[in-house]
Amino acid sequence: MASNLFVSRGGEKLQAAIVNFQLSIVNLIVLDVGSSTGGFVDCLLQNKAKKVYALDTSYGELAWKLRNDPKVVVMERTNILHLAHLPGENVRWNKAHLEGEGRDTSDGGRLSLRSHDSSEVEKVDLITIDAGWTKLELVLPVVKKFLKPGGIIIALLKPHYEGGQKHLVKGVLPQQIAEQVKEQVVKKIYDLGFMIEDQMESPILGGAGNQEYLLLIGLS
Question: Could you count the other beta carbons within 10 Å of the beta carbon of residue 35?
């Protein structure tokens, strides 16, 4: 959806979290999981991130200005649940993978990076997550290996996705159930060995008017 500040409204959600959690993004290396059009990516760049890995299972959705920004490493057709490594400085992710080199089609044709020499991979300072239908309890254990010691995660929690469709009323999860789902997800995050350092309601409602939440997550 449109935004006056970013390529999509997702940027406004992340910007609110950056301000509320009092974070500095300057010179950070970031992995953005579920980039889609690139609202989070745009926000990160405007907050002076050094580099952003923009990862999504889709192809061709990332805004043109972002895919042509030298600070953005575009990782399309990539399922985070099957990703073993981030590409390092000497790996040309797009050319190698879109031309079929290193292709792994075990996940319905989606691409995932095969192992590289350790000198060619790097970890990140910050991970941002807006993974849609993929539950946080599945994403967090995977992305943990990409995070530097002392690094942090900002995750968008969408109860209407986490809780399934059975409780939706015309596409909207009732607020009371949304709160219950959020608490269940938070407990699972703690059980996975993470710490919720802060949390907030998203200033913008999600699809169909659903309440969403932003979590600041660290390693316990």
Answer: 31
